[in-house]
Specification:
CATH superfamily: Hotdog Thioesterase
CATH class: Alpha Beta
GO cellular component, one term: cytosol
Shape: globular
Radius of gyration: 15 Å
Protein name: Acyl-CoA thioesterase
Keywords: Hydrolase
Oligomer: single chain
CATH architecture: Roll
Strand content: 35-45%
Domain HotDog ACOT-type: 5-117
Pfam families: 4HBT
Order of helices and strands: EHEEEEEH
Bound molecules: Palmitoyl-CoA
Number of strands: 6
Number of helices: 2
């Protein structure tokens, strides 16, 4: 059974002019694509299966990520259903010279494990140790109400 900490993935993207909007910062759709991809990788670690995006919610764009900065994309699975995996995704801008970071974007996403397009059961996601607890609590603290 996977632990929450096993699903924690951190990725970096250098924001290039080809990623930009008209305001010299990363285009929101590009940032969401990075979030979706890294989130899916966390979900797959939890599901031990291929996963597809079923929902992305509470996408908050708090600050821009200027061209030349690094987008630090972090995600982890914090809860599972029968076939679904709930994932928290957080993005920060990182100064490549100093390593200084500032939160820019965040979201909650639900992925579904599939085999040939049909939902399949996922294993239980376990909490093992302080890192798991910290990640789970950080995600649950702001999780939007689910239908
Ligand atoms: C070979 C691989 C190599 C990999 C290499 C690694 C590289 C890794 C890189 C990754 C890179 C890709 C990252 C981008 C990932 C995409 O781009 S995926 C593409 C976009 N998404 C899609 O096309 C999905 C389209 N939707 C569907 O196919 C179907 O609606 C779904 C999601 C399979 C669900 O099917 P369904 O028949 O509605 O299923 P149903 O039995 O009703 O519900 C199943 C579960 O889904 C949940 N659910 C259904 N709809 C929703 C919803 N709207 N909201 C929340 N939950 C929902 C249900 O609550 C239920 O949860 P459980 O109670 O079982 O836990």
């Amino acid at each position: 059974m996977p632990h929450i900490a096993d699903t924690h993935i951190v990725n970096r993207e250098r924001v290039q002019p080809t990623h930009a909007n008209n305001y010299e910062s990363a285009h929101g759709g590009i940032v969401m694509k990075w979030m979706d991809e890294i989130g899916a990788m966390s979900a797959m670690r939890a599901a031990e299966e291929t996963c597809v995006t079923a929902q992305m919610s509470r996408v908050d764009f708090e600050r821009p990520i200027p061209i030349g900065d690094t987008a630090l994309v972090e995600s982890w699975a914090y809860a599972t259903g029968r076939t679904s995996v709930r994932v928290r995704i957080e993005v920060s801008r990182e100064n490549p010279r100093t390593g200084e970071t500032e939160e820019t974007t965040s979201a909650y996403a639900t992925f579904v494990a599939v085999e040939d397009g049909t939902p399949v059961p996922v294993p239980e996601l376990t909490v093992h140790g302080e890192k798991c607890k910290e990640l789970r609590d950080r995600a649950l603290a702001e999780e939007p109400e689910r239908e």
